[in-house]
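Appendix C: a fully annotated inverse folding record. The material below is reproduced so that readers can follow the format used throughout the book. The structure is listed first as tokens, followed by the designed sequence.
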């Protein structure tokens, strides 16, 4: 039997979040954070009070370990409210919290997860490097063992939230002799450790949460900060990236739904030639296409999340969700701009923010070209089995 309905708890979650963000993070508040490039710490603290920071964390460590569809709903609503919030929230509460939960030692879980769940600790994801973006397995930040420590030297780029994070969940090369996919490990590097320099990069959108360069100059961290098994970091990358891609799909749905809500409201209020513009067929059809796009993207995203929840293989589904969600978001943002006409350019209407924010979802988490490579690879393997 196919069941497309949300549970009563999931419906309630969506309603609660919608009214929470409309109250705590209206368009003008997020616009001010972006204009002033100011981290939304006040809103983040309230999100933690609501329990949002513990959704990937088991109850025994202070979280509520929500199901994957509920996390998609949260990510969608956070993104609808604004990228500055999404960039503050998603790396810590989904990617890194999940990484520590799944691969961390008992000591790491006991020390870190309750702090993350309470909103007192944040982490940034240190994967990308200047010479290793799509080709992540060729990353060259090197960590070598010295007694009870690792000494780390290298550079990360595009590390979102690094300047306000307590730890950078850093992928490093621990065995330079191994082939590219082997010899990688994950270290939790405290942002304030000696030798860590973080430099924010000016960017297009979500400026409230900075995206940074991170320089690691002979940074000494205890071997206790190793997450997972030495030299098996690629397993962590693959395991976390499927979830990340599903959540990027949900971010695209958030952009799509946000633009659809703004555009449909505007199109019934705005009159030209003596009638609401939604009654001009060209406008009505743009809104219809936006609604179709959001629903299609959400179906693929939730299906991938459902498979992940069931423990089924979902790598191809995650890539499909990521492409479908991000590209639906971009198409919706473009149409939303057209529906609002000149007002779409004005900050107070909120549409221009979605227009700037959406492009990232086609790039981060593995570009959409890389996702299509993954999907094509699966298709090829299915045919040559
Ligand atoms: C605002 C922002 C925030 C980010 N936050 C983080 C973060 O918190 N942590 C983190 O680790 N990273 C982060 N990233 C990095 C992001 O994940 C990378 O930008 C992305 O993986 C692409 O890498 P790249 O930019 O080096 O592009 P490249 O890999 O250099 O790609 C350039 C172009 O070539 C194409 N290309 C490359 N290889 C292939 C191929 N094999 N087949 C087809 N096309 C190919 C790509 O699709 C792309 O169009 C962020 C990026 C941005 C812009």
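Designed amino acids, in order:
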């Amino acid at each position: 039997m196919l069941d497309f309905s949300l549970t009563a708890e999931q419906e309630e979650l969506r309603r609660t979040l919608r009214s929470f963000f409309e109250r705590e993070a209206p368009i003008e508040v997020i616009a001010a954070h972006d204009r002033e490039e100011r981290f939304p710490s006040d809103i983040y603290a309230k999100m933690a009070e609501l329990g949002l920071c513990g959704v990937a964390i088991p109850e025994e460590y202070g979280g509520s370990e929500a199901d994957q569809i509920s996390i998609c709903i949260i990510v969608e609503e956070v993104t609808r409210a604004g990228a500055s919030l999404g960039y503050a929230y998603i790396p810590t509460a989904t990617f890194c919290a999940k990484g520590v939960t799944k691969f961390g030692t008992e000591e790491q879980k006991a020390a870190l997860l309750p702090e993350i769940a309470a909103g007192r600790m944040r982490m940034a994801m240190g994967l990308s490097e200047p010479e290793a973006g799509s080709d992540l397995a060729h990353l060259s930040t090197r960590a070598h063992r010295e007694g009870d420590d690792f000494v780390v030297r290298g550079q990360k780029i595009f590390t979102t939230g690094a300047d306000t994070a307590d730890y950078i969940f850093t992928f490093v090369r621990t065995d330079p002799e191994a082939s590219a996919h082997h010899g990688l490990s994950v270290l939790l590097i405290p942002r304030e450790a000696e030798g860590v320099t973080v430099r924010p990069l000016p960017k297009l959108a979500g400026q409230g949460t900075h995206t940074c360069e991170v320089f690691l100059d002979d940074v000494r961290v205890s071997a206790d900060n190793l997450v997972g098994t030495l030299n098996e970091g690629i397993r962590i990358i693959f395991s976390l990236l499927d979830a990340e891609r599903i959540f990027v799909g949900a971010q695209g749905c958030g952009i799509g739904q946000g633009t659809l809500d703004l555009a449909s409201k505007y199109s019934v209020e705005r009159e030209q030639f003596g009638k609401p513009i939604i009654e001009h067929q060209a406008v009505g059809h743009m809104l219809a296409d936006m609604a179709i796009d959001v629903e299609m993207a959400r179906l693929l995203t939730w299906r991938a999340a459902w498979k992940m929840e069931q423990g089924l293989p979902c790598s191809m589904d995650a890539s499909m969700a990521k492409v479908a969600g991000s590209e639906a978001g971009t198409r919706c943002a473009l149409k939303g701009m057209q529906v609002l006409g000149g007002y779409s350019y004005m900050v107070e209407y909120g549409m221009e923010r979605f227009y700037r924010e959406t492009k990232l979802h086609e790039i981060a988490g593995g570009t959409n070209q890389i996702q299509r490579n993954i999907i094509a690879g699966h298709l090829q393997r299915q045919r040559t089995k």
